[in-house]
Hints:
The complex is a heterodimer of chains A (420) and B (164). Chain A is α/β, with parallel strands linked by helices and 420 residues long.
Amino acid sequence: MGMTFAEKILARAAGKDSVVPGEIVVVRPAHLLTHDNMAAIIGKIGPELEKYGVVDPNLNIIVLDHVAPAANEKTATGHQKIRAFVQQHGIKNFYDVGEGICHQVVMEKGLALPGTIIVGSDSHTCSYGALGAFATGVDRTEAAALTLTGETWLRVPPTIRVVLEGNFRPGVSAKDLVLTIIGELSADGANYMAVEFDGPAVDRLTIEDRFTIANMGIEMGAKIAVFPVDEVAETYLGTIGVRRYQYDPVWADDDAQYAKRMVMRLDKIEPVLALPHTVDNIDMASEHVGEPIHQCLLGTCTNGRLSDLRTAAKIMRGKKVHPNVRFLVLPASRAVLQAAMSKGYIQILVGAGATLLPPGCGPCLGAHMGVLAPGERCLSTANRNFKGRMGCKEAEIILASPATVATSAIHGVISMPEED
Amino acid sequence: MRVWKYGDDVNTDMLFPGKYTYTCGTLEEIKPHLLEDLDADFAGQVQAGDVLFVGRNFGCGSSREQPALGLRGVGIAAVVGCSFARIFYRASINQGLVLIECADAVEHYEPGMDVSLDVARGEITIDGKTHSFPALPPEILAISQAGGLLNYARAKLEANTAQT
Lengths: 420, 164
């Protein structure tokens, strides 16, 4: 009997010929991602680190991004503690404040390789499924134990196969697609499960589109969300200096068994919004045109890449941000920011009245730099609209595509996306 | 024993707001904010031995562990739910917080009913009717029984050191 991506990769990692959903396997991940929360993780295992050290200085990837630069003495002290840990234990993959959002940095640095298992103490670790990695989130305690032992357990998930067909219509993007899928499956529709994306339309999705989709796998409850490693992925890996012999991709067999199959026709997707306060509260953007907003956020690990900034810049060219809204632009990494500067996108956005934030998580989790006031509404390209997420439980967050957010920033109210 | 009842899709921001995640790490720091945006009475009134009855997808969202750490720390005897989000499920095992997936029990319970719990036997009795739930797989039970993942990992490291 054929195996799914998840079954194949977990069987290989556990040294078995085959595994079945529900089975528990013990694996040694290729990498463990942590971020600002590494300070708390180190705090859990101080004596053990003294006694045993880290299991492998190549295992940990640490990116300071969640409150970066530090907002106060406490977060600054956390960063300081992490830098000392990095020095003491010779951690190879450390990226300090300003490098970018951890998930973007992991991809750009070639640390997310096809066919590998990566765990991270951040729920959006599932993003690396864009490059055919088995990547999933864990908590801080598990990250602490992994730092010491290098191993953990995983339950083999059942899999949902999503077949993508057709072409997007103008003004519609990968964000609208993934929000539509979450609306259909619900916020727990893929809980404990893997989601495989395949079908004739995959070839036409860029790596950035795939990243946006895989990133939001957790918002349907998924353990992993994964794409096949095709020419598009191989070309991307080549551009960041990863050679073909360095990785061994895995993909599902044709006769694999699925818990569910669904077909999505891209030409049927319309611009959508995730309304407060759950990501599966999806409605057509056209139903909400003219509704008030106070802040627009373009960026985050979902939509802070070059193509997202390009989309916004093309829409903003020659226009101004409406005086009733603040438009915050948050590039996903320093590399994205530099590329967007050299293309002139940042100049257009800032010239139109946008506020440029340093690469990092920014206001997405409500810690700093753009938190909301009671009664305010933010239209955001982020991945979560939970109550209180942006620092205020009496505020509302609505999720949308970069094109919808940029167009709405011009008009000062929710607007249908212009074609970029 | 008091029962606290909540609905579906209770997310990690409702259980412990993100704005505190880099300033609150210890139980004493977490406790005043536990369930802050879900139920303002909870943190002040919860007592050891209390139970939560919750709907589907409890704990969805972030990988932050303060909800599991906090609920275990204040002495919650068990969270009985229709289903749990996977990272919260792992975090609870790693903290030794007991989660019981039993939709029948959640549907049966109405405020004011008597509830008693026997985790070892896998039984929960509500208003005289007993609902059973399956035991954890042995690999996971070992972590929970060690009092959480760090205790489990420490024991393993010590055993490895003793062997070499």
